[in-house]
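FORM 7B: Structural annotation worksheet

SECTION A. Query
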Amino acid sequence: MNTILLPLSNFYSFIRRIGASVELDDYELRKLAIFNILNTLGIMNGIVIPLAGLFNDDKLPALAWLVAISPAVISGVALLGTYYRKYEQSRMVYFIFYPLVTALAYATNIDIGIELFFIVYGVLAIFLLKKIINAVVSFCFSIALYLTVFVFWQGYDLKLIDINPGFYFFNHFLAVLFIFFSLYLFKTENNGYQFRLLQRNSELENRKKEIEEQKLIIEQKANLLEKQTAELRELDTLKNKLFSVIAHDLKTPMYALRNLFRNMQEYNLPGEEIKVMIPDVVTDLNYTTGLMENLLQWAKSQMQADALRPQLINVSELIREVMQLLRLQADAKKVYLENKADEPVYIYADKDMVNLVLRNLLSNAIKFTPENGYIFLGANETDSFVEVFVQDTGTGMSEEVMQKINANNYFTTKGTANESGTGLGLMLCKEFLAKNGGRMFVESEIGKGSVFSFTLPGNN
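SECTION B. Predicted structure
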């Protein structure tokens, strides 16, 4: 079975592709395939019908034989023109000469029963001709011939139905079959074309989705890269600022300690003079110790960005621990510390980070509070968070200084006892609070002290 179907399939594909060109789009290729199939059927019709007439005993007029043979000639010429890619010209040959030869069959005053072909040619011209003017001319030409030979003129001397009824009905059957087959071809090709369009649309939609997804991924990567670039730039700027400040501030206490021991070694200083110099050196060393601890914590936070160990913390106990740790620093300046967090208040955060935040805020408060000043530490609990505050009666800050703090502009400011500072502590406070879901707030007025507070998630 395959030995028969395969050659037929190959022949059918060959007929469809006659005259095909890469210049033609899919729609034009489908119209070309229909035209080629119709011409092939025309050639076969122009061969089969004359052969059938030869086996008929009745004698047919010469013009009938001309009409019977003409499909093979006209379709052959049209197919040849298509082969040489004269698409519009070959179709005009088809739609001019087919109706003309059909009309000539009636010129001998004989009704041979092929008037339906005029309708077929007119309809096919509309579908197959590319230029509108050619389609209109061909359609009007076919319809005009139909009206002339079949509607307006009825006085035929002979009718094929009287001479050869079988041939007459065969002509009508052939015309109806030709109409059906032509419409079937158009329907099939149209369905194929629509399916191809839907398939292409689906492919385009899928491609569009892929492009949009890729675009989104690229945008996300670009945003991430831009964010990382900004963070690196900010970190580099911060690093330069910090090292410029640290390079200066670290040398001061080291030089003071070196000078103390050098003087003790070279000049054999008496104990009374040494005692006078030691408090200043201790103050510088205390500052250096705090600075080094902040530096280590900052470096640790940069290396372990995700190292967060939250736990339940009693804020009241934490305040007492920090106050005890900085008691000597406060006593040295005669600054009084008071814990207003009498009742247990709990937060959920990293204890080491919160401890460092509280130590830095209390250390800053001591630094900017004069002798006999007061510092109050406490906590206020709400439904969703806990506010921890450090309030002092120190020198206070101007609006400009608070703007610098809020804008992360780090700078060195001397305390009331000439203590140094880098601003690194506040930077760590903000960073550690942010990691624990908290924020820092500053309220201050020159001469009336300052209130540094921060919020953290409560126990719930």
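SECTION C. Observations
The chain has a mean pLDDT of 80. The chain has two domains: 2-210, 308-460.

SECTION D. Sign-off
Analyst initials: ____
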